Amino acid sequence: xxxxxxxxxxxxxxxxxxxxxxxxDIIRNVLQNQDVLVLMPTxxxxxLCYQVPAMVKPGICVVVSPLIALMKDxxxxxxxxxxxxxxxxxxxxxxEQEVIENKCYDGKLKMLYVSPEKLLSGGFFTFLxxxxxxxxAIDEAHCISAWGHDFRPEYTQLKYIxxxxxxxxxxxxxxxxxxxxxxxxxxxxxxxxxQTFVSSFDRPxxxxxxxxxRDRIKHILSFLDEHPNQPGIIYCLSRNATENLAxxxxxxxxxxxxxxxxxxxxxxxxxxxxxxxxDVQIVCATIAFGMGIDKSNVRWVIHYNLPKxxxxxxxxxxxAGRDGAKSEALLFYSYGDVASLRxxxxxxxxxxxxxxxxxxxxxxxxxxxxxxRRQILLQYFGETKxxxxxxxxICRNPPSTFDGTVYAQKALSAIARLKEEARIGxxxxxLRGSRNQHILSKGYxxxxxxxxxxxxxxxxxxxxxxxxxxxxxxxxxxDQNYALKLNANSETVLFQHKKVPLVKFAPAAAAxxxxxxx
Length: 518
Ligand code: ADP
Ligand code: ZN
Description:
The chain is of the alpha/beta class and 518 residues long. Helix content is 42%, strand content 15%. It is built from 22 helices and 17 strands. The chain has helices at residues 2-14, 23-31, 47-56, 68-80, 94-105, 116-120, 124-129, 159-164, 179-189, 216-226, 239-251, 265-276, 310-317, 335-347, 353-367, 373-380, 393-396, 405-417, 424-432, 437-442, 458-470, 488-495, and strands spanning 36-39, 60-64, 85-88, 111-114, 133-138, 170-174, 195-198, 206-212, 232-235, 256-259, 282-285, 300-303, 327-333, 401-403, 474-477, 483-486, 501-503. The strands form four sheets. It has a seven-stranded parallel beta sheet, sandwiched between helices. It is globular and about 75 Å long. The N and C termini lie far apart (61 Å). The structure holds adenosine-5'-diphosphate and zinc ion (ZN). Residues 216-361 form the Helicase C-terminal domain. It comes from Adhaeribacter terrigena.
């Protein structure tokens, strides 16, 4: 019954005939007052999952959203569709806020967007208590978790929502959350018997490619040559780099501009506008660019520098090909970038530098992969893809491999005998029979696989273990001191003698050149 009403709302207010897969299930659960967590890639259609129930039920839906700029766009779009929506955030005067609060009291609004800092402000919960709230929607829910890549302290305040409003259902939504972040979101929001909906993160239309970071400008120019007039984004690590690169591309005759958080708001808005209207072909940008940019025909994304983790990489390449048409993601990889990022992470004010470094290492392993990149990426987000994708550089040009089954068996058995408590370095030391202080003090020299892999050097073992990790043969427990853990795939290697192809170790094959200055 209620789902009929939901379909009517979809048609009447949004002009669509049918729900996308999963939207209907999610909405049904929300309408039954269930708490839900929704993981859907950008462009998947998350907003309707709370906007539709908000219209079906009596009362008002409160949406927590971290980006003030986005909030305004969303509210305007809703109003265009005839939905009474407004927002409250710190950019408004107290007079302006009062007007909106009064509209809420009078039951004149169906959707209220609030910034997380607004939640922290005194008396806000008292204000909310006076309203008839039909649903809380927490957008970008990964911001609540220090495991995630975009932790925002104000978000931790959201844990009081369930405590204060136990009767009101909560829908948490995010486009990026690995397994740990997912658990953390559920726990911190204290959701009641939550249902989790994960739609596939696969973006099969995006071709994934990694190139060594030398002669980047030359490669970019020839890439542009092969993609005439196709709109695209080049992500750079520094603000200066975006400006310099844009100037270089302009002087090569391209319509390029730059975008970063250090330029005035009007200039930023105008760069964004020009890109949306196809007045410029290329935006050279820092990570500040892209959140909420609804341009469906971005044909390619280039990473001039290595992103700091796979979540960011995924999110940034996801700005390409939202229309489903063929698109490309090209990443330049150099050790120089890894070194700069390491320095930034250790010297910066980032929370949990060790975790951030581990994530950077995972990013680096992806860049060095000898295994289908899409499988690696999806596995990182907790999704298993049985077949290689045939749409990444590795699938198109597979490196030659040898039968590494015996090495894999030795490594996995060492992990098992170390009771799945040891980190990668310890596992290698055990395999190589190193009698260092740590190994001796733990008595690891007594276990059966000690020294079973003496024929290989440390770096060789490291490469092979990374390859095995990328192939999903074991996992790293980031929340358990980075211990290596076995999984179902490990069993097939250990007990069913599944063959493990490995790519021969070749020192410094990839990216030892220093980062190019621009
Ligand atoms: P997300 O928040 O997951 O990034 P949005 O909610 O912004 O995605 O939706 C992306 C686009 O898909 C929007 O233009 C939206 O109007 C459209 N969309 C969402 N659901 C449907 C649907 N059921 N039918 C047609 N278009 C839809
Ligand atoms: Zn592939």
